């Protein structure tokens, strides 16, 4: 029995952790905290969470509250997460942080993009980036795993085979993503109002402004051992869950669509959550909704010499809480897909 | 290991059976048939079904094709199902029929509402109605279970406590339901075109025309040992999954909302898939999407002396394939929720 | 040139008035007020309102601000509207009030349902109910028109022919309505969050609690010269605009579906915004989106002796601002459909 | 009074022509043809088209059927349009062709991308490309206007200022577009089924395969007097109407976001349907739904030296039928926005 604490359990990623963990018989949620909703149950906020695994939120007073836990998921906003993580690590818990606070090991880069200073610079250096498909061994031995951002997961998985094989020029990449509204979080704002989002699409933070840019560039650069430069445009789409990413990169050498497909399929042999769709096809976002899968399609635009890659994932599962559970499984020596076998809810 | 056959596996209820059964380690799909899509894989039609549990469709030639199976799910259209079911029962398999063919034990009533003669009138009498919350013991011992319709599941679960307790007049009931488009099936028609259904609502078969009417009336009449008469209006709503049903019935005696709530909560004690929501609240459809739950809210309109009940379920899960799996679990002596613990995918 | 003021112009009904009036060459918006958004333009809040008819919001200080106007639309929340309306009427303007403040002539009934006292009881008695299809002559001569509620418009239009002809028992009527999220207004709340509403349905104020109940009962009672009693259940549906209402009433005498259809078609001869759909068909909500139309289908459930009527309208147009413009046209002697000829945006 | 014929009136673009033209008092639809639905009314297929402007479809037998018309809109599929257009032009009618048949003046290019030979090569040379914002004078004098494709309208309007000013390298442009499902037409297919499209996104014809590519490249090349080369990826999004296009191009010289914005705003001074949104903002798709507007946002990614442009339009209005009506207005010397003043239906 793995005993887990969820710090910041009332937001969307916290609720999704509960959805994935509550039905498990080998995991017990011993603590679920929420400043705003202390005293309320998870099912009171999220009516799907009704049942025997329902939990009551409490205020988080400090790491001693999580004393009985083996592992803590920290699902706080960036900037608020780092202190809490440090306290839990010091206490000896394994920690998976779902915020952006431990994703950028260079504190100057962190501050430049997140707009706040980093107070845990030592710990920052020791965090392991929790993208299992490229970093499984390090995750298995980590005390602190920094769970990737939703957009970075969709972009890095889609580009890893191309970057690792030096198939493309790495400094001229276009990444165009469409996220479901849950990516904007639980807070009710003008932007998340149903009537504004239904039947609508909006690009935002256009022009190289999104804080996920350095994360994508850094981990791809490590993979390819070469500088990576991207233009990244996020959009909000008229649906709740999912990220659909279309990527354009200039090919370094001639390549047929079939060769590109085969290289991708080979790269992900053994990665049970990644599926390379058949040649000539492209992923459907809906295929992965509710599941931890990431579907990828790849082809070549032979007129223009470009590789085009498309990826689809559920931003709350493979893009956040499912990936965190996958990391937990790896950290505890369990089969990677324990509790994550659920197929996408389609149609 | 339970070995199952799915006859008619390429429609929505067939695909949903695969979604629910493929991840199970105690169940093996040994046969999945489709006339139209023989030779194709399930994941070729439904991209969510990719993975180790994927199956290839074959043509169904006769019960000998299912010889190695312990149980067959028959997910054929009404009228086409009865012969196939008979063949499988004769062969000695347990059968769960998801069509309407074995729901109405009186063949004359069947023909009046379904428009075709019934060719298996003996077998018809022996079929057990597969609504576990009111019929579990009979299901446990059945050879042939007739899986309820989606609308009847939503209506009977919402009315059972009131009818069984004689709280309401049973011949003056209004049932108003809104179904997701998946209820209209996989066939592409003008009615199921995205541009027609998006942002749209349409009532259909208005005026007592829907074939689920006699099914609802019959099983409620048995429960209350009294004639039941309903006006039922189905609507198609702008979403894929789910049935939301609002019911109006004249109270036989004065009753407060709290009394009604308590009576409902008591009735469903021990029914793990039914949740009576808190007094003063009403169900959210989305809370049950992808899950086998049925959420019910009940109150009293004291101005007019009416009981008002609202139920929400996923038409493809509790309204069809999840309920069929629940029935299978019961027939094989498993815990009722084996493989059905998945919580609704919300938000 | 009709000069109009819009008091409370930044909410959904205010913005819809601008959408309908800005393109007109015979109308000029001389004042558009908003406490919260003073200094901003309409197009800054509603990007569709860009163009030559764009207006800048100002703070409303009193009726003198509207001195140059011939007519004022008051689109303030109930309770806040009555004083403002009184000031404008006193100043000599024609006024169309879109709130609930002048719909219930009996102040005790108003207070019982709206929870606030009425401070303008004299004026209350003189207000004319602005449902043109049943009250056109009075509207033509009115100084103060009280624009109907969205649900009442959908219910009264659907029931008027039946009530006026005494075809049904008037004290046993069920009204079941589904509204788009815009009916909940512009304020961002947990309830209006996209992720909560998408793919969702929720009944609310169930059990005779909605403040539109006495309005529906009153104006139908006047039409039929007999008491009317309804059970009314509103729902929020997963779309922005539109109300779809299904009504059940016991027939006083036998009637065929055709007879019912003919009686309805006759009743609305000359009502250009009401369409009775063909016998055997039912309205599609989407057919009226963006338009001032109300589509109605009517049939008889011969098994149970019930009349069933279904109506569809756009809650922001025929259910609010379009109807207000229709009233303005009538008050100024213009053809009723001036500026309202736009057809529904379908598909 | 302009008398118009609509050949192929029962598809989505035909129905949208009726929606826009039926309410006009200066236009009369004298012929509306449909092979499949002859004898039925427009409102029978599209319930929004009910009203005094409703039309009955007839079979098109030849240009003599349109003898009384001044202008014919031809809304047939590509390949089927060219002969019909030729017949009508020969007969002396002005013609606006909404298919792709007359957009590519080089017959070899046409055949390469559309897969059929061109039988009207003389006429092909005389057709005028009907994008009024860049070609108004030629349209005014044209007999045959070739109405642009939906994607090309969104892409060319978004790129015209940049190409005309040589602000960007023209051979390295990425165009990423998301279309509503109505772009796939009225035919019910697996792809257009509601349950497949809802909450879904799919890229299609990826890798330089879409027939709109040469159209975009050609008309931009003319504008910039230089070769243009694009990678274009279309996607289907989960909504009925609208195209949202995000474009990436390498800047030829340094440029600030403000300079880019000003250059765009200047370019479209006087183009009443094009709105350049405020600096720092990006268009919302919903702002233009139902309207003939095209909203454009432009900025610079200074990290990577790229211009990023985003455009939004309604594919059935500015992307097809609204633009056709705009062309008709120009051809008949009317104000460009006659009958096209309707603002977007938002929220």
List keywords for this structure.
homotetramer; 347 residues; alpha/beta; Rossmann fold; Dihydrodipicolinate Reductase, domain 2; 2 domains; seven-stranded mixed β-sheet; six-stranded parallel β-sheet; 11 helices; globular
Would you kindly provide a written description of the structure presented here, covering whatever features stand out?
- The structure is a homotetramer.
- The first copy, chain A, has about 350 residues and is an alpha/beta fold.
- Chain A has two domains: about 1-125, Rossmann fold (3-Layer(aba) Sandwich); about 150-315, Dihydrodipicolinate Reductase, domain 2.
- Chain A contains eleven helices and 13 strands.
- In chain A, the strands form two sheets. In chain A, strands 8-9-7-10-13-12-11 form a seven-stranded mixed sheet.
- In chain A, β5 (about 130), α6 and β6 form a beta-alpha-beta unit.
- In chain A, α6 (about 130-140) packs parallel to α11 (about 315-330).
- The longest helix of chain A is centred in the middle third of the chain and has 15 residues, at about 150-165.
- Chain A is globular.
- The two termini of chain A are about 35 Å apart.
- The interface between A and D is large, with 50 and 50 residues.
